[in-house]
UniProtKB/TrEMBL annotation:
InterPro entries: ADC_dom_sf, DUF2071. It comes from the Archaea. It comes from Haloglomus irregulare. This is DUF2071 domain-containing protein. PANTHER family: DUF2071 DOMAIN-CONTAINING PROTEIN (PTHR39186:SF1), DUF2071 FAMILY PROTEIN (PTHR39186). Transmembrane segments: none annotated. It holds the Pfam family DUF2071.
Length: 242
């Protein structure tokens, strides 16, 4: 099946916070359920630069690329035999990118003041979005790769949090552009990509009100941090499951 879009990104920071599943459950709508690793749910922020977005399987020539910063907040869910990520928010430094992601894929994209800057191999990422409640969802971090590249091992925390190729949300939340019909089913979106190239990271999360803005409690542990130099993925048409 050909992809709807091909997305290329780089300089990805993964930050995973362990939380009590009971704290995450109110944010996960039926018929989905929270997935746990070692008895704890995970909520993850992904800070990255979307370098290029192209229709189908096309690639954007380097001279025509217009990158923008993006910040994804997600947790991990199950529905029957399906498992994947559930997006709590996707903050985009591109208003056009946010509008397309929201209308075409039914995902909670929002425009944000997001930017990414580099000095050598050090990346500085900031994102700020005003919430419906009037407060701010802010995330600011400095990071750089620090160690040898590796791939996620089976049953590892990286496999649970990072090596995901499906996202799920209730069919009743689908937009007119999606095959959801307002039923009690689930929309399953899929991506195609090679396994992530991961590296340890020297990172400092300087500001984080992202979880609080989503209605989550303050984590009782430091985030588990990883880095990837980048990715290229094909976004396949979503499908509805009963």
């Amino acid at each position: 099946m050909p992809p709807l879009l091909t997305v290329t990104g780089r300089d990805v920071l993964f930050a995973h916070w362990p939380l009590d599943p009971a704290a995450v459950e109110p944010l996960v709508p039926d018929p989905l359920s929270v997935a746990a690793y070692d008895g704890r749910a995970r909520v993850s922020a992904l800070a990255l630069e979307n370098v290029a977005v192209a229709p189908g399987a096309l690639s954007v020539p380097r001279g025509l690329r217009r990158g923008f910063a993006q910040l994804n907040l997600r947790t991990y869910v199950e529905h029957g035999d399906e498992s994947g990520v559930y997006f709590l928010s996707l903050d985009s430094g591109s208003r056009l990118g946010a509008a397309v992601g929201q209308r075409a894929f039914g995902l909670p994209f929002r425009p944000a003041q997001a930017r990414i800057r580099r000095a050598g191999d050090t990346v500085r990422f900031t994102s700020r979005r005003r919430t419906d409640a009037g407060d701010a969802a802010v995330f600011a971090a400095r990071y750089r790769p620090d160690g040898e590249a590796y791939a996620a091992e089976p049953d590892s925390i990286e496999a649970f949090c990072i090596e995901r190729v499906r996202y799920l949300f209730p069919a009743r939340e689908a937009t007119a552009a999606l095959p959801g019909d307002g039923s009690d089913g689930v929309v399953v979106g899929r991506i195609e990509r090679d396994p992530w190239e991961l590296r340890p990271v020297d990172a400092t999360v300087r500001t984080n009100t992202l979880l609080a803005a989503a209605g989550l409690p303050e984590p009782d542990a430091a985030p588990e941090l990883r880095y990837s130099p980048g990715f290229r993925m094909g976004v396949l048409p979503p499908e509805t499951r009963d």
